[in-house]
Amino acid sequence: MKCNIFFRNALLPTAILCTALLSLTCSEALPVYEAPANVMALEVIKVEQLNDHVAPPHRPSVHIVIVGENIFDEVFYDSVNIRGAIRIWWKRKPTRYRTIYLTEKNMTDRSLIRNNRMMLLPGQRFSLEAYWDLKSDNGMSLLSEMDFSYAMRRYCDFNVICANPEDFVIEVSLNVFDRLGYVSATPKEFKYIGRACVCAAYPPCNLGGEC
Fold first, then answer.
1. Cα gap 141→32, rounded to integer Å
2. What is the chain's Cα-based Rg?
3. pLDDT tens across 43-65, in order?
């Protein structure tokens, strides 16, 4: 009986030591996952006021292109959930702004996403595009608040007068990979020159009626 007690007491410290070693080994083998930082960069690369042949003065439009790039030094492959927003605000009148929401439909090449996952090689890019119709979030046409005074001095094309150039700012925030969260682009400024037809019945408006 004394012999059995001796062996049990001798084995107990050994068992505790083995359990502690195994616990330490497991915790080292399974570290908590942390998504790498600085994986993706976002940039507004184009803000284009469309010409009168594409978007005449009575329905103006601005074309916006945003590019995302894998700036990580490894391939990044993960599930995607593309959602975000473009916010455009008028520097002279900051209370006038427009929010354009972004989804997967804004991507110019949706074939990059397969089974809700996307792979980006180091340096690989993808782009999204959107259009702005010069209206604010409350539906107001900002052309109506631009300076077209002294109209006879403002002819800039046949049957077209131009307003003073106005400064706007574009801000973009976008979620692509859920594990990375939202990424913001550096705000980009651009100028817009309002255009209006002198006579709506003539080109480029062609709205009919009489002048």
1. 51
2. 30
3. 999 999 999 999 999 999 999 99
Indicate which CATH number applies to the domain containing 54. Answer: 2.60.40.10
pLDDT at 31: 61
Ranges of beta strands (E only) in the chain are: 40-49, 62-70, 76-90, 97-103, 113-114, 117-120, 125-132, 155-157, 160-177, 182-184, 188-197
The predicted model scores a pTM of 0.81
Q: What angle do CA 26, 28, 29 make, to 5 degrees?
A: 65
Secondary element (H or E) of residue 13:
helix 2-29
- Give which of 102, 101, 93 is closest to 68, Cα–Cα: 102
Torsion of the alpha carbons at 140, 141, 145 and 150, rounded to the nearest 10: -150
The Cα–Cα gap between 91 and 3 comes to 90
Structural domain including 48 reads 40-147+167-196
Q: Which DSSP helix (H) or strand (E) runs through 23?
A: helix 2-29
Find, among 33, 101, 112, 100, the residue nearest to 68 by Cα.
Answer: 112
Question: Both 136 and 88 in a single domain?
Answer: yes
